[in-house]
Write a structure and sequence with these properties.
Elements: E1 4-5, H1 16-24, H2 36-49, E2 53-57, H3 60-71, E3 77-81, H4 85-88, H5 93-96, E4 101-105, H6 115-121, E5 132-138, H7 151-163, E6 167-171, H8 175-182, H9 186-190, E7 195-199, E8 210-214, H10 216-228, H11 237-249, H12 254-269, E9 274-276, E10 285-290, H13 296-305, E11 308-309, E12 311-312, E13 317-321, H14 328-345
Parallel strand pairs: 1-11, 3-4, 3-5, 5-6, 6-7
Antiparallel strand pairs: 2-8, 7-8, 9-10, 10-13, 12-13
Helix pairs in contact: 1-11, 2-11, 3-10, 12-14, 13-14
Residues 8, 10, 59-61, 64, 85, 89, 138, 142, 171, 173, 199, 201, 210 line the site of ligand TLP.
């Protein structure tokens, strides 16, 4: 039985072209800035996001942490959504290692922050207060089911932050999903943020890595922070080579993952006891809930036996993510297996 793994787009394997590029990569010591393949990937990333410079980082988590550490000082406060990956899923690194206070405001179902909430959360000058220095956004928004922040919204909220002297970091782990879905360049979505990070190891299928992008001056400081965190890599061209192939060949095909996610969502919505936990599926993430008639533990056990993997998100909430290694027929097969399980366990 074929395992259909919908836990995350992080499970994608490198393509044969990536493996060839890795084998043949020209390398050097990147801590000395001498790895031509890393330098090429960084230049491509800067170009794609419309920023002056970029830095190759081991993971999305380290990219966000490096951004927070570079933009802030210990004791600062940063504002972010209560569903932000930085807040929920990065081991509290911003607080533990960056010494910043994470002040959350609610994310709406589209991954947005209400500008009025953000404005209220920005601290005034008062000897008792920490200084607010950074706003973090996320596009697409993981917890909000791959929801997209539009360029108009991003401009508005970044404008507000900038008027109050804050910098903005955009966690764009899946920014190319947003770009492809909207039909705009990623640079348009990142234009108003001071820094943006994106992952090559998710839908883009490279095995490792993220890029942090911003001004030359910001990236110079971020390079020191990355070294401090132990993230200075040496012949990293071996993995950067796959990233170059990812940026060259994997972006446009994300549209297929989006179509498959819509197909999956439509099918799930027709299964008794399952309801979608989001109004629309905009990219490659589908969040769904089980009603009380489908016990969560039976559902998980049933799916495991049927070879379908989805992510349990606490309570009766689940996440399914489409990606390059999931075809349209895999979606239909997964739906058939989920329907079988739900029939067997329904109370
Ligand atoms: N997200 C992973 C898990 O951590 C949940 C996933 O499977 O979706 N920002 C966003 C928006 C992310 O979704 C992720 C990874 C990261 C940052 C961190 O990237 P990595 O896993 O490379 O550290």
């Amino acid at each position: 039985m074929k395992i259909i793994d919908l836990r995350s787009d992080t499970v994608t394997h490198p393509t044969p072209e990536m493996r060839r590029a890795m084998f043949e990569a020209e390398v050097g010591d990147d801590v000395y800035g001498e790895d031509p393949t890393v330098n090429k990937l960084e230049a491509m990333a800067a170009e794609k996001t419309g920023k002056e410079a970029a830095l190759f980082i081991t993971s999305g988590t380290m990219g966000n942490l490096t951004a927070v550490l570079t933009h802030t000082h210990h004791g600062n406060e940063i504002i972010l959504g209560d569903g932000a990956h930085i807040f929920l899923n990065e081991v509290g690194g911003a607080a533990a290692l960056g010494g910043v206070v994470m002040r959350t405001v609610p994310n709406d179902s589209h991954g947005r922050l209400d500008p009025a909430d953000v404005e209220r959360a920005i601290r005034g000058k008062n000897i008792h207060y920490p200084e607010t220095t950074l706003l973090c956004l996320e596009n697409t928004h993981n917890r909000c089911g791959g929801a997209i922040l539009t360029p108009q919204y991003t401009r508005e909220i970044c404008g507000l932050a900038h008027r109050h002297g804050l910098k903005v970091h955009l966690d764009g782990a899946r920014i190319f999903n947003a770009a492809v879905a909207l039909g705009v360049p990623a640079s348009t979505l990142a234009a108003d943020a001071d820094s943006v990070s994106f992952c090559i190891s998710k839908g883009l299928s490279a095995p490792v890595g993220s890029l942090l992008c911003g001004t030359k001056e910001f990236i110079e400081r971020a390079r020191r922070v990355r070294k401090m965190l132990g993230g200075g890599m040496r012949q990293a061209g071996i993995i950067a080579a796959a990233g170059i192939v990812a940026l060259e060949t994997m972006i446009d095909r994300l549209a297929e993952d989006h179509a498959n996610a819509k197909r999956l969502a439509a099918g799930l919505g027709n299964i008794k006891g399952i309801s979608l936990a989001q109004e629309t599926v905009e990219t490659n993430i589908v969040m769904f809930d089980l009603s009380a008639e489908l016990p969560v533990s039976d559902f998980i056990a049933g799916l495991t036996a049927q070879g379908v993997k989805v992510g349990a998100r606490g309570g009766n909430l689940f996440r399914a993510v489409t990606h390059r290694m999931i075809s349209t027929s895999d979606i239909d097969e997964a739906l058939a297996r989920i329907e079988t399980v739900s029939k067997v366990i329904r109370k």
